[in-house]
Design a protein that fits this description.
By secondary structure, this protein is of the alpha+beta class. It contains 11 helices and 32 strands. The chain is 14% helix and 32% strand. Strand 27 and strand 28 form a beta hairpin.
Length: 638
């Protein structure tokens, strides 16, 4: 299946200079330092799809900062000679793309599924992500009447989304805008494209989030192995087919080794390896033994849907370690709606920012950034809230900074340690500094020159810092648009003391003013109910113990003190031990101030408003089972 070429094929022939040189000298010491780079897919004279990274003059970028070396790293001291993630239960069943151009969606979803299983969020029997939803909405994101900038970016290619092809760039752009990942049950894959036509209202269905993607060097075999041991699988692009494929009928296995550099036509998932696979198994001999265990997406008819790919396959590229988790946050502030294959490049350092406007009273919980598929860099990402100047990201309150060291193309969600409240209409900023003391930095950015899409960007959204002031991208650059930084928030939900209530026919009394629960004359789980989305728990049932209330995100929103009349010592019983404590109260050894409201109320077990000898006698009688304490009394605190 074709890895997406779109009309990026021959795009280099139509490119013009990306940036006007306004304020360029402010970005770098020398105006000649500013440039841009982009990922280019093209077809060679044999109709093979190839990938390269070019600068503004169409020159391939190969510099000293390239993190992908030419030598193989075979140091696998921490890895076994063989590995199969299926043995850990980390791999979902092989699926069938039915001949459509959706291998990229299947490979991406399979890697995410394995990541979720390996981390304990799911198991192979209950996780099945929708490739159809990902493939459809990767190319169908435009909503003409939307107020969201992310939905005004749009593709201009109207061809069949299931035959158009794709790759990891399109998958990441789609899921990072929160269009997927959702489940196969909701959006099943069908044999015909007509079975997979979805409504725009389904665009932002999501059950899981990708929180990190790291592109791996195919020559760093040790690093790839470690990623598979950590997360079950990695996603990759390869050339799959003749004359590089051998079907071995003796051991009923396929073997693949492409000895042509960087040609691709298929996306797959790598789930294991075997260092002992002989060079003799392949159509032509690789430089050494060893192969990757590859999960395919063409059904199980050919040897169960798996094959072996030589470690030294020259087509192997875009290898991605993917880390995912269940969806967490409520809102995604973003300006980039589709994939970004361009970047601004500059020597050594570039500070950039996106400014957003809060749509409600919310908590700023985190943010994210991308790096381009070239070079090493250090990334500092910082949030500022309550901006005083709409065009100055530094004019607000600084929250906290997260730091990353990146190699090549990466994506990371940075979860903040603190929680920072923002108010409706308030501006806040995500500031990202890319630095590389040994070479260039590359900052992903939208670009008007991408022929298959229309990017929508306005003033007051994206900026760079020139060393003394912030400059708006729309002023500085002719064709560059927004950066790919995103901010994540949680809605502030007002809690009205109404999540928990007494079950029908229950005698329980819930005092929301004093936060006390009383009237417990049975199993508390049968006596107390909560609204949908809430839950409660408690360590024990006894006076002074705490019942906690949680929302749907398992965040504690309330707590109540349990009161059982006569249970003065908190063990859940009314007996002579409690009578002893009441005697101490009667004789002035304990006071209401020292024991607290709940214990004092429990000591007045006959409900006459006083703690006295009659309560002492009643508790002694309870200890001998002659009498019991009425729990259905409604107290009042003066």
């Amino acid at each position: 299946m074709n890895t997406n070429v779109r009309t990026l094929v021959s795009i280099v022939l139509t490119l013009i200079l990306l940036f006007s040189m306004l304020s360029v000298s402010a970005i770098a010491a020398n105006p000649d330092d500013i440039d841009y780079a982009y990922v280019n897919y093209y077809k060679d004279d044999k109709n093979n799809i190839r990938r390269e990274i070019l600068d503004s003059k169409g020159r391939e970028i190969k510099d000293d900062t390239d993190c992908f070396t030419d030598s193989f790293n075979l140091d696998s001291s921490s890895a076994p000679a063989k590995w199969d993630s299926r043995n850990n239960g980390w791999v979902t069943p092989v699926k069938d793309q039915y001949g459509m151009g959706t291998c990229w969606a299947f490979a991406f979803c399979a890697a995410v599924e394995s990541s979720l299983i390996a981390q304990g969020y799911a198991n192979a029997d209950n996780i099945d992500l929708s490739e159809a939803h990902l493939a459809f909405f990767a190319n169908q994101n435009y909503v003409s009447n939307s107020s969201l900038p992310v939905q005004r970016d749009r593709y201009t290619d109207t061809s069949d989304p299931y035959q158009r092809g794709g790759n990891s760039y399109y998958a990441l752009a789609t899921v990072s805008r929160w269009s997927g990942l959702t489940t196969e049950t909701k959006f099943p894959y069908g044999y015909f494209q007509s079975q997979m036509q979805f409504d725009q209202k389904d665009m932002f269905e999501r059950d899981y989030d990708v929180v990190s993607i790291r592109e791996l060097n195919r020559n760093n075999i040790s690093d790839i192995k470690q990623s598979i041991m950590n997360y079950g699988a990695v996603e990759a692009s390869i050339y799959y087919g003749q004359p590089y494929l051998v079907r071995n009928t003796t051991d009923k296995t396929l073997y693949s080794f492409c000895n042509v550099e960087d040609i691709v036509n298929h996306s797959v998932t790598i789930v294991g390896w075997d260092d002992s696979i002989s060079v003799d198994k392949f159509a032509s001999a690789p430089q050494n033994n060893g192969a990757w265990l590859v999960k395919n997406s063409n059904g199980t008819g050919v040897y169960g849907g798996y094959f072996w790919l030589s470690y030294y396959d020259l087509s192997l590229s875009e290898i991605n370690e993917i880390i995912a988790r269940p969806a967490q946050y409520d809102n995604n502030y973003q300006y980039d709606g589709i994939e970004t294959v361009y970047s601004i490049s500059s020597n050594n350092r570039l500070t950039t920012a996106n400014i957003f406007t809060a749509q409600g009273d919310e908590i700023l919980k985190g943010c994210s950034f991308k790096t381009f598929a070239k070079g090493n860099c250090k990334v500092n990402i910082t949030a500022y809230i309550a901006l005083k100047d709409a065009n100055n990201p530094y004019s607000g309150t600084k929250c906290e900074t997260k730091t990353y060291s990146c190699q090549g193309g990466e994506f990371h969600v940075a979860d903040f340690d603190g929680e920072y409240k923002i108010h409706k209409g308030e501006r806040f900023a995500i500031v990202v500094t890319y630095s590389n003391s040994g070479g260039k930095v590359y900052v992903p950015v939208e670009n008007k020159l991408y022929k298959n899409a229309i990017y929508d960007f306005d003033k007051g959204q994206s900026f760079y810092f020139d060393g003394s002031a912030w400059v708006d991208n729309t002023v500085a650059f002719k064709n560059a648009g927004n950066y790919t930084f995103k901010a994540y928030t949680a809605n502030i939900k007002e809690y009205n003391n109404d999540a928990i209530f007494a079950a029908e026919t229950s005698s329980v009394i819930i005092d929301n003013q004093n936060k006390i629960i009383s009237g417990i004359d049975g199993n508390i789980n049968d006596l107390v109910s909560v609204k949908n989305g809430y839950s409660f728990n408690f360590d024990a049932v006894g006076t002074g113990k705490t019942l906690k209330v949680f929302n749907a995100k398992n965040e504690q929103v309330d707590s109540y003190t349990i009161l059982i009349y006569g249970d003065v010592n908190g063990d859940g019983l009314c007996d002579a031990q409690d009578a002893y404590i009441v005697d101490c109260i009667i004789n002035g050894l304990l006071t209401e101030e020292t024991v607290g409201n709940a214990v004092w109320l429990a000591a007045d077990c006959n409900h006459d408003g006083n703690v006295d000898y009659s309560d002492y006698l009643l508790l002694n009688s309870c200890g001998t089972l002659i009498k019991s304490v009425n729990q259905t009394f409604s107290f009042s605190l003066s």
